[in-house]
Write a structure and sequence with these properties.
With about 475 residues, the chain is an alpha/beta fold. It folds into 3 domains: about 170 residues, no CATH class; about 90 residues, no CATH class; about 180 residues, P-loop containing nucleotide triphosphate hydrolases (Rossmann fold, 3-Layer(aba) Sandwich), CATH 3.40.50. The protein starts with a strand and ends with a helix. The structure holds guanosine-5'-triphosphate (GTP) and magnesium ion. GO terms for molecular function: GTP binding; GTPase activity; signal recognition particle binding.
Length: about 475
């Protein structure tokens, strides 16, 4: 709270000072009459001390801004935290009334003239003359007491007359008006700030709810919503206030931007120039590896006009390779069934005349260590093979995490998610890709070969996550 003290030779003058300095609504906390020793006059003088505080400080109208992450900066009127004391010391001649201060030009001509005559009257003040005179003069002048008292009486009545006339005029108090404007501005800003933070909160909460219901991890939602809160460009906030639709779009598109930044996709499988590409699909049992491989082969062959060979390395189940053999026949692609690593090395080194070699493997569970060991023995070959990990959207997050951990030894180039048509939540796709820093390549959306496959795109992920 700002508290200041004002002193003058009369109580009225001290109160006037308070109003001039702190505005009409200033609250007077206390008044005191006291005697001080004036060095200039070499005698004791009676003065009045008024302690006051501006009204805004008392009513709590002026509020300091609260610190908050990313909240819009509002230039609130400041409240001085330290107590301050203004002491008007000395004799009246030394005190220059604020009425006659540089704000004189802001008064109307009539008031200005009154103020000037008051200033002249004060300038004639014998006490001031005495102070300005030399030390010896001062003493002799002080002796002429009766003359001085008479002069002072005349001056006093003159000053009182001028003051009365001044009081009758409408007062122009610039300080008070500025203070009122400041308070008004602050109220407007506070109202706007409240509205904009309400809008921000409801939109951010809505985005959080959508992502949570899609199964996105809490840590990602926290990161995203914290970032959204920090979007505090005041110009944008101003615009958002004008339309709830605009605000909704703003927060949604910002959330999408954030997801896009972290989510990575590979795009469709592409061959390096003049080099065949060897692609191997791995993953748990029954997730759709063979069906997906057939879909990809059909897309490459039919849509892109590429030459494709299909290999089955699924000798684990009886007649497992037949499924792919049938697809190869339909697609009119060369087909081979290989049972071990040496056959694989020999086959790939020999066959150089196709754009793609697509390899299907038996389903392996990351929980069964022998199966993973067998897979290592089969696939860890000194060949440029790209491994892609196939998982179903219907798997639980925990199973997906364990599967990725189990297949890490093959350093998968991408994740393929199947059965999007059978799942309600897509958060797992985002979580697994971002947490493991493995991009997404394809999504499959049904049993039909080759139709039900799509290239993984950030737009499709976001669409599904935010139910756009
Ligand atoms: N609904 C739906 N079913 C799919 C999808 N992809 C594959 N399937 C079905 O899932 C079942 C298993 O597909 P497969 O391709 O044999 O799966 P796999 O991973 O090769 O299985 P294993 O070789 O036994 O490990 C089949 O009935 C497919 O039709 C899909 O995107 N959506
Ligand atoms: Mg299979």
């Amino acid at each position: 709270m700002e508290i200041r003290k004002f002193e003058s030779f009369s109580l009225q003058d001290a109160i006037k000072l308070v109003k001039l300095e702190m505005g009409r609504d200033a609250v007077i906390l206390s008044t005191k009459e006291k005697e001080i020793y004036s060095e200039e006059l070499e005698k004791n003088c009676r003065i009045y001390e008024v302690t006051a505080t501006p009204s805004a400080t008392m009513t709590g109208k002026v509020i300091s801004p609260k610190a908050g992450v990313g909240l819009p900066k509002v230039d609130f009127p400041k409240v001085k935290s330290k107590n301050e004391t203004t002491v008007v010391k000395g004799d009246p001649s030394k005190y220059r009334s604020p009425l006659l201060s540089p704000t004189l030009s802001q008064l109307n001509p009539e008031t200005r003239n009154m103020a000037r005559s008051l200033a002249n009257a004060l300038n004639k003040d014998p006490v001031k003359d005495r102070l300005l005179s030399s030390e010896s003069n001062k003493k002799s002048q002080l002796n002429e007491n009766s003359e001085t008292v008479e002069e002072m009486g005349v001056l006093k009545s003159e000053i009182l007359k001028v003051r009365k006339e001044l009081e009758a005029l409408p007062q122009i108090d610039i300080n008070e008006q500025v203070q009122e404007i400041k308070v008004l501005l602050h109220d407007i800003m506070r109202e706007k700030y409240k509205q904009s933070s309400d809008i921000a909160n409801s939109n951010i909460t809505d985005i959080g709810i959508r992502l949570r219901s899609a199964g996105v991890s809490e840590s990602f939602i926290n990161q995203l919503t914290t970032w959204l809160i920090t979007l505090d460009d005041p110009k944008t906030k101003e615009e958002l206030l004008s339309s709830p639709e605009k605000a909704k779009d703003f927060y949604l598109s910002s959330a999408i931007k954030f997801i896009f930044k972290y989510l990575k996709v590979t795009g469709p499988f592409r061959t390096d120039q003049n080099r065949k590409k060897v692609i191997c699909l791995v993953g748990p049992t029954g997730v759709g590896k063979t069906t997906t491989l057939a879909k990809i082969a059909a897309k490459l062959k039919v849509n892109d006009g590429k030459s494709v060979e299909l290999i089955s390395m699924d000798s684990f189940r009886i007649a497992a390779a037949d499924q792919l053999r049938v697809y190869a026949k339909i697609l009119e692609c060369p087909f081979a069934e290989l049972s071990d690593k040496n056959e694989l090395i020999k086959y790939i080194s020999k066959n150089n005349n196709h754009d793609y070699i697509l390899i299907d493997t038996a389903g392996r569970s990351a929980r069964v260590s022998e199966q993973m060991e067998a897979l290592k023995g089969l696939l860890q070959v000194p060949l440029p093979i790209e491994f892609h990990l196939v998982m179903s959207c219907t798997m639980k997050q925990r199973d997906i995490d364990e599967t990725i951990r189990g297949f890490k030894f093959l350093t998968p180039t991408s994740l393929i998610f199947t059965k999007l048509d059978e799942s309600w939540a897509f958060g797992e796709i985002l979580n697994s890709s971002i947490q493991n820093k493995i991009p997404l390549s394809y999504f499959t959306t049904g049993q039909r070969v080759p139709e039900d496959i799509e290239i993984a795109s950030k737009e499709r992920v976001v669409e599904r996550l935010l139910k756009l």
